[in-house]
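Protocol step 4 of 6: record predicted structures for both targets in the notebook before any analysis. Target 1:
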Amino acid sequence: MKKNKPVWLLCLIDLAALGAALVVFALFHHVIPTQKLALNLVSIQSTAHADALEETQETDTIQAADSAAAVAVSAQTLLPSVREADSLSEQTSLQSTGVTVSLSEHEYLGGSVKYYLADLWLEDVTALKTAFAQNTYGSGYTDTVPSMDSLLNAALCVNGDYYGNSDEGVVVRNGLIYRANPTDADILCLYYDGTMEVKAYRDFDAQAEADQGIWQAWTFGPSLLNSDGSAVSGFNEGRHMNGDNPRTVLGYYAPGHYAVLVVDGRGESAGLSLDELAGLCEELGFTLAYNLDGGKSSVMTFNDAIVNQPASGGRAISDVIYIAEDSL
């Protein structure tokens, strides 16, 4: 008569099989590069969107194509307390017809935190581009921000939402909808008319968004500001994510006027919690602010140089947001 295996041995065999399955899953999902099938819905840039953007830019107090001096005046008007507190910070600008990028370095919370702010004025929102690592949509394809900066001939380059780390959420890049899968995360949408909105997945319909003229969409979050521009409080994102960390934020003032905020952390700069980050975004005068991938992913380059002090030297990621040198 065949003797039955002990229960403990059967449990051990089951655990070993489960472990092997998880290793294989992780290998194929996170390590081995795998191209993904895309929805390939093309967004429509309508004449109405172009007319709306032109009308908005004509009525703005300061145009995206104004001089760097006018941009500085605008920033001081929007951010009086921050500009006064950081009056010694260095500022660098790049400008051409239709695009102005102004970069400045600041200290916050009594000097315990350092952050970098890229102020963007864009006459045409398509100057704000995105790119996949290794020029491929899928999982496992990664590269560093400096490397992608070089390959893209970028004037300004920053990490995105690390879409390749998950199959959830929405991915829209340069007017093409690649993915629209269910997610609990906030979705940031940027449209051809220059407007920016945060949506829940239940409010995101891929075909309707394509018809509306969506240009970019990211899935990470959370959204940091209420509709009146005040800081959101009481984030429920878990201790690890809500702790003091390096951060990357995409900020929005009005159509054609945006900002990229990178906060250093895990070093001489302490980093910020989500509550502190939301408070900073309120102080900066953003009308909308969206938290992108942070931690070691938070890297910004400008004029072919790394601007911030990435945690542990940074890491390879799946996507970037950039403004090309040929836009300037």
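Target 2:
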Amino acid sequence: MSPPINFRVIPDSICGLESLEELNLSSNALESLPESIGLLQKLKVLNVSGNKLSALPDSISKCSSLVELDASFN
């Protein structure tokens, strides 16, 4: 069994995946999300629970297809 990977930073390049509909970034060590997250117009589900986020970027409001957001335990 591999040890867990604890991401601290999400690269802006992930926000170039225009057809992405679900993104699970739970249980990492993220302190922020890139402003470019707003480019994910087809994103329906975003799970960022269990990180170290103190806020979400304003650009999250541009994710017009987002119907489920879990930011618990941050």
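Step 5 preliminary note on target 2. Residues 18-70 form a domain with the Leucine-rich repeat, LRR (right-handed beta-alpha superhelix) fold (CATH 3.80.10.10). Strands lie at 22-24, 45-47, 68-70.
Proceed to step 6 after PI sign-off.
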